Amino acid sequence: MRIDDAATEQHGATGTPGEPSVDRIPIEFDLGGAHLGDLLMALPAIGAAGRQARVVVSGLPPRHFTALRALPVAFRQTCERPAHTLRPRFQPGMHRTLAWLQAVGEGVQPVRIPIPVHGLRQAEAMLPAGYWALLSPWADYAGKRWSMRRWAALAGALQERGYVVALIGPPPSKGLEVVEWPAGVVDLRGCDSATTWPALLTRASLVVSVDTGCLHMADALGIPVVGLYSVAHPSEYAPFWQRSQCVHSARMEEMALAQVIALVDRIAIASRP
User: What phi and psi values does residue 132 have, to the nearest 5 degrees?
Assistant: First the structure.
């Protein structure tokens, strides 16, 4: 089943960009060669820039911004002058979002943009009321993937902690290693669309994901996350609003299940009233 655009809401924390002057030269974020996750890491700086002028995001193929097409920015695949094109200075150990903020201006603070989400009614039907933990094991790059056997073990540990567990991901994720999942795990891999998959995230109390756009989207929506990192380091690529909620190992096969469960438990304790 695929979900459509029948329902739309704004998700994310406060801090909506104000109305910029239409007379000012647009501020351009050149994301040539980047991916959805890079766009999401740039969003706090895009929100800040949007308070100064109109924002253009260039260089991304449509598949990397389809889910965010309704944002108050102009998407172009090529750079069109005149525009003030930002040139962030990415440095080792510096988070990408902070580099973008520095490029916008001295002392510029991040702005959290509400995310337009489509297909909420269908997402509610697929994931009815419950304490959902969504697991996202897919990454295009195999070096970012964690063993499916460990994902299955994590699903069982989350169930013991009171979560209802579901798998999410694009159609290729159904081709990952076949394992035996604990009874009750819902498999929704490939059941969404390019526009509506963020709606599934809004149903979650927790999202556990490898380093992909899914993780950064959940973070942008304000959903608690646990990020699993190996190839990239969290100091530079962690979900910006929840930078401490990552597990890192030099290689994914070295990442222990106990490390991930410990972080899940730490987040649960921190979130208690």
Answer: -85, 135
Q: Would residue 8 count as lying in a domain?
A: no
Whole-angstrom Cα Rg for the chain: 19
Same domain, 71 and 131: no
* CA atoms of 110 and 105, how far apart (whole Å): 11
Please enumerate in sequence order all residues whose Cβ is within 8 A of that of 165, keeping only pairs 6 or more positions apart, or say none. Answer: 132, 133, 134, 135, 155, 158, 159, 182, 184, 185, 186
Look at residues 234, 239, 269 and name the one whose alpha carbon lies nearest to residue 255: 234
Is 1 contained in some domain?
no
pTM over 0.85: yes
pLDDT digit string (tens) for the chain, length 273 residues: 222 343 445 565 444 445 554 557 889 999 988 999 999 999 999 999 999 999 999 999 999 999 999 999 999 877 665 568 898 999 999 999 999 999 999 999 999 999 999 999 999 999 998 999 999 999 999 999 999 999 999 999 999 999 999 999 998 898 888 899 999 999 999 888 888 899 999 999 999 999 999 999 999 999 999 999 999 999 999 999 999 999 999 999 999 999 999 999 999 887 665
Number of compact structural domains in the chain:
2
Instruction: Please report which residue ranges of 92-206 form alpha helices under DSSP H.
Output: 96-104, 120-126, 148-160, 197-201
Task: State how far the Cα of 117 lies from the Cα of 221, in Å rounded to an integer.
Answer: 9
Rounded to whole angstroms, the Cα distance separating 257 from 252 reads 11
